[in-house]
Amino acid sequence: MTGLSTILIVVGLFLAGGVYSFAKQGLPRGVIGLLAGASFMCLLAGVLRIQGIWE
Asked: Could you give the number of structural domains in the chain?
């Protein structure tokens, strides 16, 4: 399922851009940490699905 992997990676990159934008705006660290964690998990899940480790 490379379609789902691609979607996970795109969402992860979108959230990473949000982390960068929110950090520049000076939002609370809790919000930034939550978005960073969600971004990392989406990117990790997408990469693991591409590698065939997690299906």
From this structure: 1
